[in-house]
Amino acid sequence: MSQPKKKFTPKKKFCRFCDNPELPLNYKNPEILADFITERGKIIASRVTGTCAKHQRALTREIKRARQMALLYYTATHSTDVLKKSKI
Ligand SMILES: [Zn+2]
């Protein structure tokens, strides 16, 4: 018996920073910012993460600050995770 095709229903996107105003959005919390960048270091688009325009702008600014402070990496070559995986 064939299973009925399950229709893909994407989870409703929401802005994490609007949802939880207590969530700190600054360069001092790189572990939160790290959720919004790819493993290659790219900032993920708001249409993917669901972050609102206001917070996406703030997020971009804080990620760039964090990179400047060496709390986040610019590219994968500087990421310790990727270095471990590729065993350079
Ligand atoms: Zn927001």
List its salient traits.
single chain; 88 residues; mainly alpha; 30s Ribosomal Protein S18; 5 helices
Write down the overall geometry. globular
Bound molecules: zinc ion
Q: Kindly report the CATH topology.
A: 30s Ribosomal Protein S18
Radius of gyration: 17 Å
Return the CATH architecture.
Irregular
Number of helices: 5
Mind telling me the CATH superfamily name? Ribosomal protein S18
Give an account of the 3D structure.
This protein is mostly helical. It has one domain (23-86): 30s Ribosomal Protein S18. It has 5 helices and no strands. The model has no long low-confidence stretch (mean pLDDT 86).
Structure at a glance:
By secondary structure, this protein is mostly helical.
Which helices and strands appear, and what pairs or packs with what?
Blueprint lengths: L15 H4 L10 H4 L12 H4 L3 H16 L11 H7 L2
The chain binds zinc ion (ZN).
The site of zinc ion has 6 residues, from helix 1 and helix 4.
